[in-house]
Write a structure and sequence with these properties.
Layout (H helix, E strand, L loop, with lengths): L2 E2 L2 E2 H9 L20 H12 L11 E2 L20 E8 L5 E2 L3 E3 L4 E3 L4 E2 L2 E2 L21 E6 L6 H5 L3 H14 L10 E3 L7 E3 L11 H13 L31 H10 L8 H4 L2 H13 L9 E2 L6 E2 L4 E2 L8 E2 L7 E2 L11 H5 L13 H5 L5 E2 L21 H6 L6 H8 L3 H12 L2
Antiparallel strand pairs: 1-2, 3-9, 4-5, 4-8, 4-10, 6-7, 11-12, 13-16, 14-15, 17-18
The chain binds heme C (2 copies).
């Protein structure tokens, strides 16, 4: 990288040109951001909305019948109140271990994942005696819920270069004198075996690619095997041959439609009416001043057209290239005192064969250090969330703020020292996002 006056050229590009780059389109109107035409986007959305049943490959273990079931507020691709269950335990050395979940009266043990599916297709007419409902044994003492997240605008997040996040983490740590130092985590790109990218999706940054996430969600949320995740969690009650997701006449599988749908969504729009009030404007300044902005970064920019990401499998084009957008998040992992103690399961997210592949830059110790970290929740669209924080356990914005400890401790203290009217202004600003 070229150095301009000692500052990496890219970092300069990010900060100097952010204000002059075109804005990513926003809205909740189901329109495309321009990546595809409206008809293609509507057809991709229909796949995202589609309800799957047992003959389609649903289950045997699952959480929901369609992507929309958990990602729909206020429209397809948004968030929802639905939460999922993750558990595990510590080994004698204090390391997190995935749980062992017995099913079928103990005849089979589910291992290699920390998600516990809330639903099962059995017992049913074809298998009346097969009991596969997952239930948590008392010995799995580490337990958490994770609430569904917003996906609208994620195409822009995917199109931010790895280097931008690396620079952001460095700058953040320096600026805050090592008090706030977000972690960059390299994660496998499942569709490009051997390659990795900077994780940015999921509460633990478990994926960098929307296609990888789609394959993961199709299997782990709906039980539908696909070319990226070809192995069922259990073969009990399983009747449809693998992979359940087969290419259509256009050569695309459902996971390709999901990824393209998400890439083509507009970013969440603000409440313009509220955003322009003096109170919300004052709140925005205070958000900056007390230091929320250090992690809840206002503006990011996407890479230029022609940039290859996801191990070279996806090329950024016109609609996604060189845009600025306002996620109010850094997509980095932080310990703000709310950690759930869970380390992501490799085989759950990247497939049962992931250990047969050598992945560039993949570091198991780096993964283990995330046990008590959570990705900064991007605050775009936060006004549409009734349950906050990864576990959905905070139901007011104020409660969510006051839970911030750890790296955010000194920021929370500054917030608490604000006058009541200033606190109210900051909350009003959040209600405009
Ligand atoms: C039962 C609810 C549920 C269903 C069904 C579901 N999801 Fe999700 N989704 C979640 C939850 C919960 C998270 C956060 C998971 C985590 O990080 O632990 C999430 C996260 C995501 C993310 C990460 C987005 C980001 O910005 O961090 C993507 C992408 C995603 N889901 C896509 C899908 C797709 C595609 C489908 C359909 C194949 C789907 N989801 C089905 C609940 C669901
Ligand atoms: C050190 C980084 C950091 C700082 C500083 C910080 N946050 Fe956060 N924020 C996070 C992380 C990480 C989460 C997710 C925590 C979790 O889910 O357990 C979060 C979550 C939130 C949420 C919940 C959003 C949702 O969708 O659930 C709100 C609201 C929020 N922060 C507001 C603020 C405000 C206001 C400030 C300043 C007073 C602030 N944060 C300062 C990192 C930070």
């Amino acid at each position: 990288m070229k150095l301009l006056f000692g500052v990496p050229a890219l970092a300069l590009a990010v900060y100097v040109f952010a204000s002059t780059l075109p804005e990513a389109p926003t809205g909740f109107d189901n329109k495309t951001n321009g990546l595809v035409d409206d008809a293609t986007h509507a057809a991709d959305q229909a796949k995202f909305d589609e309800i799957e049943n047992v003959p389609d490959g649903l289950g045997p273990l699952y959480n929901g019948q369609s992507c929309r079931e958990c990602h729909q507020n206020p429209t397809s691709g948004g968030s929802s109140q639905v939460s999922e269950l993750r558990v595990g335990h510590s080994d004698p050395k204090g390391k997190f271990q995935d749980p062992e979940i017995p099913i079928n009266r103990g005849a089979e043990i589910i291992k290699g994942r920390n998600l516990v599916n809330d639903r099962a297709i059995c017992p049913n007419a074809a298998f009346p005696g097969t009991e596969i409902q997952e239930r948590v044994p008392d010995s799995e003492r580490i337990r958490t819920f994770r609430v569904s997240v917003n996906l609208l605008g994620d195409g822009f997040v995917e199109a931010v270069s790895d280097q931008t996040f690396v620079e952001l983490a460095k700058e953040q740590c320096k600026k805050n004198h090592n008090k706030i130092c977000g972690q960059v985590l390299y994660v496998p790109i499942v569709e490009a075996p051997g390659t990795t990218g900077v994780g940015r999706f999921g509460w633990k940054d478990q994926h960098a690619s929307l296609l990888s996430f789609s394959g993961d969600a199709y299997l782990n949320e709906m039980g539908i095997t696909n070319r990226l995740q070809p192995d069922e969690v259990t073969n009990l009650c399983n009747t449809v041959s693998e992979p359940n997701d087969t290419p259509g006449p256009d050569g695309l599988g459902d996971i390709d439609h999901f990824a393209r749908f998400l890439r083509a969504t507009e970013a969440p729009a603000r409440d313009d009416q509220l955003a322009t009030t003096p109170k919300a404007r004052q709140g925005a300044e205070l958000f900056d001043k007390v230091g929320c902005i250090q992690c809840h970064v206002q503006t990011l920019t996407t890479a230029s057209a022609g940039t290859k990401i996801n191990g070279g499998t996806f090329t950024i084009s016109g609609a996604l290239a060189e845009k600025q957008f306002h996620p109010y998040g850094d997509f980095l992992l932080h310990n703000v005192g709310t950690g759930d103690g869970i380390v992501q399961s490799m085989t759950e997210h990247y497939g049962k064969k992931m250990y047969q592949i050598t992945w560039r830059n993949l570091s198991i110790p780096a993964y283990e250090s995330t046990a008590n970290k959570i990705r900064t929740a991007p605050l775009w669209g936060v006004r549409l969330h009734s349950r906050l924080m990864h576990d959905g356990a905070s139901v007011t914005l104020l409660d969510a703020i006051l839970r911030h400890r750890g790296e955010a401790e000194h920021v929370t203290e500054k917030f608490q020292k604000l006058k009541p009217s200033e606190k109210e202004a900051l909350l009003e600003f959040l209600r405009s996002l």
